Structure formats: C-alpha cells, structure tokens
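cron nightly-structures :: item 1 of 1
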Amino acid sequence: MKKLLLTLIIGLLAFTLAACNNDEDKKDSANANESTEEKAKADEEKADEKQAAADAEEMQKKLDAQKVKEDTVVAIVNGQEIKGAEYNDALSISQTQFQSMGQDPTSEDIAKQLKDYTLESLVGQTLLMQEIDKKGYKATEEAINKDLETLKAQYKDEKAFNEALKQNNLTLDELKTQISDKVKYSQYIEKDLNIEEVTEKELKEYYDSMASQAEEGTETPKYEDVKEQLKLQLEQQKTQEKLAAKVEELRKGAKIDLKI
C-alpha cells in the first residue's frame, strides 16, 4: 500500500512540475527535461504496479477455480463427512505452502498434488481428532476462554477482533470450537505421544549441520544465540514424525472414502 501511494505521489508531482514549467514558457529547459523523465519513470512504475495487480488477480482466479462447492462432501472418514468449506480452507493453506516453495499451484501436475495433499491432510486430521475424542479428552471453558483472550489481545479492540472474525468467515462459536480442538490436541500430544526431549547432543549436531550448509561468506550465528529456536524446530520435527506414524496406524483400521 505504501509503495503504491508513493508511486501515485511521484506521478502527481512529476505531472505538476511539467505543467508549471510549461506555464513559465520553458524558462528552465533542464528542469523540464528532468520532470519529463520523472513522469515517464512514474508512469512506468504505475504500469508495473497495474500489471502486477492484474497478474495477482488472474492467479487468484485460477486458485479459486480449484475449490469446490462448500456443501460438497469431499471425503468420509469412519462415517464422518468432510465438507467442501473445510476442504477449501485447507486448500488455500496448501496453495500458499506450495507457492512459498517456488511451485506453480495452477499447473496441472501441481494442482493434482495439491488436491491429494489437502485431502490426505484432512483425513489425517480427522482420524487424529476422532482418536482424541475416543480417549475422552475435554477442553474446559476456562482453557478455551484463556486462549480466546490471548487471541483477542492481538487486536486493538473488540471491534477489530470482530472484524477479523468476519474477514475469516468465522463466528465466535466456530472459533471457540477450533480453540477447543486445539486444547484437546495439545493434551493428546503431551500425554499420549510420548515425544522424547531434545538432547544437547541433538541440538549441537543440528547446529553443526546447518552451519556446514550455510552459503560461503554468510555469517553463522553463535550456537547460544539460536539454541532455543533450534530446540523448538527439533521439537516440532519430532512431534510431526510421531503424528505421521500415528496417522498411518489409524488409517489401517479406518474406513476412508475419498469423493473427489
């Protein structure tokens, strides 16, 4: 937004300078030439901005075309339906992930991978939540409200928070349901997955591996400065590995019917 505003101001300034120079019968030819160059540069920048916006709009249309109707049943997992609305939300996240890796989500091959990846992710998530509910994990109102207040604190006021809900097509009750799932999910990971703690040896090996892969001339941060960040990354990695293994285990005894 700031870049666009700056481009418009530069364009307006160049136009004004050119007009003033014409009114003064071109007394300063050097200034007139300079303002003309500025205007041309500003016009070129505006054209680039306009093209970029058009490209982004066209890309979004192609991405939206991959979505399905919200009430479409995309999969059934142990009798539980997964609807298009949930699929579309997950697909948008998948599209962003693929784009961040330099992949074109609109190409035929990648689009097929995206669909499969999104469906498998939703199936895995559903299997895990079914297992969590089966084990009887509960989210108390106190825990839900605590997380809710933490979320609200990120916004200026209640109005801004409600606007964010609206932009994400969420009601407060739907958000509370998502928070409840998150709370139960955290309980399950802590009590059932038995994830091993990250050792000092693992941290050092991880650090040395990253340092050895750094580009020549790049300054490597000190181990103590990044230790906590590396620990978090390794913890997340171990959690994902455990979850993936659990999903594979749950799939073996599950009835899964993909509809798209």
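cron nightly-structures :: done
The longest helix spans residues 29-64.
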